[in-house]
Amino acid sequence: MKDLLQQLIRARSTLDTGEQAAAEVIATHFQRYGVDCRIDSWDRNRANVIARVPSAGKRPGLLFVCHLDVVGPGEDPWTYPAFEGREVNGKVYGRGAVDMKGPIAAAIGAICEVVASGAELQGDIVFAATAGEETDSAGVQRFAADLSRLTKPAGVIIPEPTDLAVITAHRGLFWLEITTRGRAVHSSMPQRGVNAIVSMRRVIEELERYEVDFPPHPELGKCSVSINTIRGGEAMNIVPDRCSIGVDVRTLPGQNTDAIRYDVERMLARLTAEVPRFEATLSVVRCAGAMETDPDCEFVQGFCSAVDVDLTNAIGFTTDAPHLAPLGAPIVIYGPGKPNQCHQVDEHIAVADLEAGQACFKEVLLRFLT
Ligand SMILES: [Zn+2]
User: Fold this and answer.
1) Which of 176, 268, 297, 326 has a 20 to 30 Å separation from 345 between CA atoms?
2) d(CA 74, CA 182)
3) From CA 39, how far away is CA 252, in angstroms rounded?
């Protein structure tokens, strides 16, 4: 399993290289265990990989959904190369070690162990690893477009690194870009132009006062709004004709993003009516839903008892889980590795954590499928 993780780290799968190489590593591994596995490729180097272990079909199966892609290594230097998978003092270093190639290796390790044991499975195992979770969710959308060929599983497992905590809820994200337009003139006569940065100040003031009308969630807290990027202006002597901000809204389960969009559109319309020569546009850059599974449902209860965890939790980051909602199956997020290692320089996972993860995934497979 450690070898599989090291091969996966070497099969770089950032946005610029695509996921094909990592998909091939997984397909080769499954085929070695006689597990049927196919790669779905598009756009030259993008790829999903889907494996299926058939069963007697007497019970609903289990579906694992992972992401193959990783974020880039970042600007800061690494102690060990980011795409080598070097093992030092019982830890494997490399981009994706925790997010999420380590948990992938643990899940595949458990599946292959169960297959090799010859256990008679009563429900199918389907394993999917998809492209682009860190960017556009292209892979999971492609996979989810065809969910009708799957029979509804007992549950879906998303092996993100949770340090073996069972996660049943996370917030969603709704990214907005607001652009103000002005009129560029030489700044020795600013009164002849319209300053897009000054217009944006009004927008920022409004957004700072904006409270999203939605009740807080007991574990996830409030829906939050944060202005995280700003761009505007070309030169010290030109009145800027364009300014843009990026706004990150983190949404709660059950919340309707159309309502947020409507609020912001209304706010911009009011400024257009009130402020002379004010002009602004709004666009949605990205939208990913929140997720919530009933922690008291049979699947979550069975899962918790298999992995010996008493309490379920919520997390701060988002996953591809909302794309799987049409399946109608309960979803948990669970895997080995410290979540604070995600996207960091010197990302690593302890081999002991990988092994613990594999053992827990095996317990889950045996509990639900034998
Ligand atoms: Zn991840």
Assistant:
1) 176
2) 35
3) 34
